[in-house]
Q: What sequence folds into this?
């Protein structure tokens, strides 16, 4: 069973990502450090009926008393009202700083639960059990936790690393095709920006059906890559921004179309294809890269063209609001070839001309 270490700020802050099949039914021993403490398990209305029983049984075996908190499924849950409800539940359960909070679900559950864990009594022990492919390869690793504000996504947040990440690949069996696709968008991203061999492996597997049997290894490689970025730049001041390849346009699309119309990974797929075309137009990305990346995205049933009905004015205006702006320029990640990339500040006018 692969174990990927993450060192976020100092060697003593190391935590491990355990990846395997059937892990949720066989993880009691991984909780041994918390024997005698309490655990608040936070799931949503999708993940609670599927996985909470198995996880709480393992906690019980490890000598940990647990209580289940169920949030409504969906992005709207990442709000101040639900956060306050979480604090109430922690208080009702008499959770203390010695105790632990476990996020059992996808990115939404991980983000709001992590933010609650970071802030409740100035921080309690936190464990991530991601159950979507996107959360397994990206959001559960690296400590970004947040809730949304009515004026923007993830505007209230913190860097708060989990102490343990448990990835049970069996949870992917209950995901629908769109959710798997959204995760694959992020998987392909790692190949594009960091690991040409990973990209070529995905390219030669050529379809979701061929990739699924080796997904454990692919998830482990993505976690290793993410861990490398987090080790070098835990607070996202420099190289970690490369993880935003495809995200300038993706965030603009998600905003313009209304959150939830496109899944994040679907929007990232469109954004990556566009960033390759932009890179070629600017002479940064070698000719032919856009076609190659687009073909791989299409082979995995991901979208690569601009959705109909959204004007370039709207997209350009949205991109100008990007959180990664540098003065009036938007830091856009472009491939220098498959497997390496760099950030390039572009004016909103330049981005509009590229659209
Ligand atoms: N999801 C991008 C990051 O963790 O930096």
A:
């Amino acid at each position: 069973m692969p174990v990927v270490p993450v060192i976020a700020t100092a060697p003593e802050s190391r935590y491990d990502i355990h990846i395997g099949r059937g892990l949720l039914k066989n993880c009691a021993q991984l909780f041994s450090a918390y024997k005698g403490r309490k655990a608040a398990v936070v799931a949503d209305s999708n993940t609670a009926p599927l996985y909470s029983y198995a996880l709480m049984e393992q906690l019980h075996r490890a000598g940990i008393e647990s209580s289940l908190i169920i949030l409504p499924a969906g992005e709207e849950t990442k709000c101040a009202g639900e956060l306050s409800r979480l604090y109430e539940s922690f208080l009702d359960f008499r959770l203390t700083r010695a105790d632990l909070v476990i996020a059992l679900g996808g990115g939404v559950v991980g983000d709001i639960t992590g933010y609650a864990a970071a802030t409740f009594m100035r921080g309690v022990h936190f464990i991530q059990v991601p159950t979507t492919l996107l959360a397994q390869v990206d959001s559960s690793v690296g400590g970004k936790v947040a809730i949304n504000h009515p004026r923007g996504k993830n505007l209230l947040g913190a860097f708060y690393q989990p102490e343990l990440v448990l990835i049970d690949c069996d949870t992917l069996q209950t995901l629908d095709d769109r959710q798997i696709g959204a995760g694959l968008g992020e998987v392909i991203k790692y190949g594009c920006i960091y690991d040409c061999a990973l990209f070529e492996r995905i390219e030669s597997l050529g379809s979701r059906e061929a990739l699924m049997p080796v997904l454990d290894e692919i998830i482990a490689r993505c976690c290793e890559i993410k861990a490398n970025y987090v080790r070098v730049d835990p607070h996202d001041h420099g190289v970690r921004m490369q993880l935003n390849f495809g995200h300038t346009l993706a965030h603009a699309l998600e905003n313009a179309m209304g959150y939830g119309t496109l899944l994040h990974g679907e929007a990232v797929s469109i954004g990556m294809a566009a960033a390759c075309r932009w890179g070629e137009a600017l002479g940064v990305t070698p000719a032919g890269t856009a076609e190659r990346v687009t073909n791989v995205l299409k082979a995995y049933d991901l979208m690569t063209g601009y959705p109909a009905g959204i004007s370039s004015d709207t997209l350009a205006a949205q991109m100008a609001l990007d959180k990664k702006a540098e003065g009036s320029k938007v830091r856009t990640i472009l491939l220098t070839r498959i497997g390496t990339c760099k950030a390039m500040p572009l004016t909103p006018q330049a981005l509009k001309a590229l659209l």
About this structure: Residues 138, 142, 144, 236, 240, 243 surround glycine (CB under 6 Å). The two ends are 44 Å apart (CA to CA).
